[in-house]
Amino acid sequence: MFVRVLRDFCRQTAAVSGRENVNRLIHIAVPLEKNRDRRSFLASVPRKDEGTEGEKFVFIDSAITKKEDMFPDINTPNMHFGGVKFSDVPVCHIKSSRNNTILHVTKPNGERIMIRSCGMEGFKNTRKGTNIAAQATAIGLATRALDFGIHTVRVTINGLGPGRMSSIKGLTMGGLKIISVTDDTPISWNPLRSRKQRKL
Amino acid sequence: MKIIIIQVLNHKLQFIIELLTLAMKHLKFISRTVLVRNENVDEACRILNRIMGSEGFLDQYRRTMFYEKPTQMRRRINYEKCKAIYDEDMKRKINFVLRKNRPEPFPGCY
């Protein structure tokens, strides 16, 4: 507001002094103007998608609905899902990194059955690191898995990337039944020295 | 009667200890796992994300992706301390302003 008043005042003085059509900003207003532009620009840029939807989300009805049966206990590995023991259900490993999403389907002992990644699906370069690519890849993998005879899977997610949630969505859209979701991100509280920071 | 109660308690304790030891081993599909209920995968994912976020797992992961220089760490920790103090004060102030001293604190609201 103050800046605008100053600017108008400046324009008036310029007009009074005899020169017409002179519209210029006085010295102090320019940097402020620039700053404001940048702020509005930053506000209009969409937030980076990390795929962690629901992290800063509070359920209002959390007190009403019971969530006790949503967490595993000792008996969970022996529970039956569609006639198969929980511990014998195939696993779908999702690794979602900044630039790509890789999906494996393995047997419970870790033997690989199939693998798909956004790059294999035909997305190249930066397009690999998008949630759309991840979803398409997951749908492709799900159809293949159904052909193979796999109908139910357990899911483990590794890493924070744009494909974190959308690949799970793609798996369900492809027709696979997901019975559990596990986070498998490697987190250490006394880590080795990691690589140096990215220069932006 | 007492013996029966003690036995039941013992049984429960054993159950809890067994579960804790399993969780301490970070067994896959026991720790950091949410079962899907009624084919509602979205809900399960959101619960998982929320728990991971509120326990500080995701923050720790983001922080350790790249090396944090000691100066940066000092700055961050000081900032967090200041913020905690400010938040506590502000919470107290808000509670003070919003305090109610009448028999029915919010008349007309049930």
Automatic annotation (TrEMBL), chain A:
Keywords: Ribonucleoprotein, Ribosomal protein. One of its GO terms (molecular function) is structural constituent of ribosome. The keyword Ribonucleoprotein applies. The keyword Ribonucleoprotein applies. GO terms for biological process: translation. Gene3D superfamilies: Ribosomal protein S11. This is 28S ribosomal protein S11, mitochondrial.
From TrEMBL, chain B:
Signal peptide: none annotated. Keywords: Ribonucleoprotein, Ribosomal protein. Belongs to the bacterial ribosomal protein bS21 family. One of its GO terms (biological process) is translation. NCBIfam families: S21p. Gene3D superfamilies: Ribosomal protein S8. The lineage of its organism: Eukaryota, Metazoa, Ecdysozoa, Arthropoda, Hexapoda. It comes from the Eukaryota. GO terms for cellular component: ribonucleoprotein complex; ribosome. One of its GO terms (molecular function) is structural constituent of ribosome. The keyword Nucleotide-binding does not apply. Coiled coil: none annotated. This is 28S ribosomal protein S21, mitochondrial. InterPro entries: Ribosomal_bS21, Ribosomal_bS21_sf.
